[in-house]
Amino acid sequence: MKVAQTFEKHLQQVCFLPEEIDQQGVSQLLDKFEQLGNTMLNTAPLYFLIDYTKSQYLLMTNSTLEITNRDPREFLEGGIPMLKSIYQPDDFRIYNEKIFPVNLRFLQSQPQAIHHEFIFSYNFRIKHKNGNMVPILQRGCYLTSPVTGQPIYSLGMVTDISPLKKDRIIYQTIERRTENGRQLLEENYYYPYEEDSQLSSQELRVLGYMAEGLSSKQIAWKLNIAENTVNNHRKNMLKKTNTKNVAELIAVACRARII
């Protein structure tokens, strides 16, 4: 089977797959996510289970009332189309075209037998019944077909992060459960609105000096700002360009003729 490039295309493909997942394995994984949620203070996680082959929710807990003021039965009856109807459109575009394809490519690079060991996280906004957009964090894993490696089920938990999330940046991570906790394997930043990803004039000045080989202390002296401010500009530029280090940042900036 040809691998889908977006979430929506994936749903179109897997609807033809037979169900090949051990239901006992699903229950065990849900128990693990519930234990994780119980360790989070002052939160009431929502637990979910999605069957991609039917575009339906098989489980949606009552916490959806607290997060969206919607009865969980609305999701159980409406399925993924119901979720999409309240998903912030720009955030869904990022998930559909960027986040889900990254997850698929990662799964392709790993043996199917250990797919369930990876935790995929990202934040997005959904519409509350009062019209407000609520920022939430979703953490979950995929159960995949032993034959094709394609995700068939998605399960995990969702938490309201309104007290913590004030910007519009989408943060994605891929982790693996280990005996000592969790290992971060990949992280990415996405900007639904292009203006948020543009480098500011001050960031461009800092970047120019970085390209000349100046240290943070030297740049701070030239711009008459604190060294910590220079370091914060560097971190923000790495996020905006999805680069991992200064060398990669300068290379991307040169290719884009920013500097």
Automatic annotation (TrEMBL):
<keyword id="KW-0804">Transcription</keyword>
<dbReference type="InterPro" id="IPR016032">
    <property type="entry name" value="Sig_transdc_resp-reg_C-effctor"/>
</dbReference>
<keyword id="KW-0238">DNA-binding</keyword>
<dbReference type="Pfam" id="PF00196">
    <property type="entry name" value="GerE"/>
</dbReference>
<dbReference type="InterPro" id="IPR036388">
    <property type="entry name" value="WH-like_DNA-bd_sf"/>
</dbReference>
<dbReference type="GO" id="GO:0006355">
    <property type="term" value="P:regulation of DNA-templated transcription"/>
</dbReference>
<dbReference type="GO" id="GO:0003677">
    <property type="term" value="F:DNA binding"/>
</dbReference>
<dbReference type="InterPro" id="IPR000792">
    <property type="entry name" value="Tscrpt_reg_LuxR_C"/>
</dbReference>
<protein>
    <submittedName>
        <fullName>Regulatory protein, luxR family</fullName>
    </submittedName>
</protein>
<dbReference type="InterPro" id="IPR035965">
    <property type="entry name" value="PAS-like_dom_sf"/>
</dbReference>
<feature type="domain" description="HTH luxR-type">
    <location>
        <begin position="192"/>
        <end position="257"/>
    </location>
</feature>
<keyword id="KW-0805">Transcription regulation</keyword>
